[in-house]
Write a structure and sequence with these properties.
Pfam families: M20_dimer, Peptidase_M20
Number of strands: 19
CATH architecture of the largest domain: 3-Layer(aba) Sandwich
CATH class of the largest domain: Alpha Beta
Protein name: M20/M25/M40 family metallo-hydrolase
Number of domains: 2
Strand content: 15-25%
CATH topology of the largest domain: Aminopeptidase
InterPro entries: Cyt/Met_Dipeptidase, Peptidase_M20, Peptidase_M20_dimer
Bound molecules: zinc ion
Largest sheet: 6 strands, mixed
Shape: globular
Number of helices: 14
CATH superfamily of the largest domain: Zn peptidases
Keywords: Hydrolase, Metal-binding, Protease
Length: 458
């Protein structure tokens, strides 16, 4: 067992984090936008070389199609505990930089100003990978790597990780580990470090209806039914004005929350002002009208959201027209237990029962929710080492309100997962002027170094 000298390790992490910045810049210059198939082969080569340079064993997996999945292994050092393995999940793809005119610097040219580094992928998710590698290097230069470390770095996270589940299934043995650190996380507006032990799922639907082969003169509305009205009425039958979801069976599969989970959920902070002010909200929060606790809603309740709708004419001035068709995109953020297939069946049955057999519904994509066992000691270990490394408050969320492929990880690997990352409250992931603060970059690397050390000792 390795004696951990925190001070020596801290100095080593600061040095390695500092030395890793040049490489991070190089990584940020690669325009690896998965949605536009940009620079994927060169990014894969870059990462494979990078892992090798840091002393890792690498396999590039690509025979199942999609952008390659990269496997990396850093075996425990001589004095380390080779019985323990931590898996890091990262992704090398980024979101498109649009809208370009809102960037104050070049999106793919890293720009450092007052300790903040700007560029597409700084927060989501290139900074995290470099930070984790810096921690590994710092450990290797001091006490040796205390346990085995594996990486799974994929290139389709920003487009919903369509290929990942088949790679996980095929390579479950290769990626086998005792616990996993997920790809994202940030500090909130009060400088608290946010950790997430799970994630919501998502099911994305398209509903459409058509009543003619061409748009018609609206005088014909006297006799011809209107697809926009049909769709609006169908939607209105699915959710009432108080935001109750009225689709029969919608809540059937949900796993009940026990007392301890409820307590954990209600212990996390909720800052109404941090939500209403920056976003200029004009309506009261729906949880207020419903007398609900917002934390419960964010983490434990599913949603049903109209993401967009189109029909007929919405240009300038007037155009009297009876549209030939209407379409809506709808997403449901799901909680553990729910499946997109079940929701699709519920929607189909609901539409038939309510007289909307003309409305077609399709499940475009879905990802199930996952929540780690909240009693798993790994959760506390991540939290305690974060407190020590960041010297600030840390909040453990049982799950994030967002979505990612955690369910597929657990299905193949069966392990606790906690997400943490390099972001801050103003990181603007997916938006123009994405950034990280270099202080967080170093503190986060220190967190990973402490975590690996203590994880190996358990
Ligand atoms: Zn992202």
């Amino acid at each position: 067992m390795i004696e951990s000298n925190r001070q020596e390790l801290k100095e080593s992490v600061i040095k390695q984090a500092d030395q890793s910045v040049d490489t991070l810049y190089h990584y940020l210059r690669l325009t690896s936008v998965s949605a536009q198939h940009l620079a994927i082969p060169e990014t894969v080569t870059f990462i494979a070389d990078l892992l090798k340079k840091f002393g890792g064993e690498v396999q590039v997996l690509d025979e199942l199609g999609g952008n390659p999945v990269i496997y990396g292994l850093f075996p425990a050092g001589e004095q380390g505990n080779s019985e323990r393995t931590l898996l890091f999940y990262n992704h090398y793809d980024v979101q498109p930089p649009d809208p370009l005119d809102e960037w104050e610097s070049e999106p793919f040219e890293p720009y450092l100003k007052d300790g903040t580094l700007y560029g597409r992928g700084t927060a989501d998710n290139k900074g995290s990978l470099m930070q984790r590698l810096a921690a590994i290097k710092a450990l290797e230069e001091t006490e040796g790597l205390p346990c085995n470390v594996k990486f799974l770095i994929e290139g389709e996270e920003e487009i919903g990780s369509p290929g990942l589940p088949s790679y996980l299934k095929k390579y479950a043995d290769l990626f086998q580990a005792d616990a996993c650190i997920w790809e994202f996380g940030s500090k909130d507006a009060e400088e608290r470090v946010e950790l997430f032990a799970g994630i919501k799922g998502s099911a994305y639907f398209e509903l459409s209806t058509k009543s003619a082969s061409i748009d018609l003169h609206s005088s014909l509305a006297a006799v011809v039914d209107n697809p926009a009205w049909r769709l609006v009425q169908a939607l209105a039958s699915m959710k009432d004005q108080n935001n109750n979801i009225l689709v029969e069976g919608f809540f059937d599969e949900i796993e009940a929350a026990d007392e301890e989970l409820l307590q954990l959920v209600r212990n996390v902070p909720f800052d109404k002002a941090a939500l209403s002010e920056p976003f200029g909200l004009t309506r009261p929060l729906i949880t207020e009208a419903r007398g609900e606790i917002p934390q419960d809603a964010l983490m434990l309740y599913p949603t049903m959201t109209i993401c967009g709708m189109v029909s007929g004419y919405i240009g300038e001035g007037a155009k009297t027209v009876l549209p030939k068709e209407a379409k809506v995109k709808l997403d449901c953020r799901m909680v553990p237990g729910q499946t997109g297939e079940h929701l699709l069946a519920c929607f189909q049955r609901h539409l038939l029962r309510h007289g909307f057999s003309d409305i077609h519904i399709e499940l475009i994509e879905s990802q199930r929710a996952y929540r780690s066992n909240i009693h798993d000691p790994f959760l506390n270990l991540v939290k305690q080492t974060a407190e020590e490394a960041y010297q600030s408050d840390v909040v453990l969320y049982p799950n994030s309100p967002g979505t990612g492929p955690m369910y597929a990880f657990n299905e193949s690997l069966h392990l606790p997962i906690v997400s943490t990352g390099v972001g801050w409250a103003e990181s603007k992931a997916h938006a123009p002027n994405e950034s990280i603060r270099m202080k967080d970059y170093v503190d986060g690397a220190l967190h990973m170094a402490y975590l690996l050390t203590d994880f190996a000792a358990k």
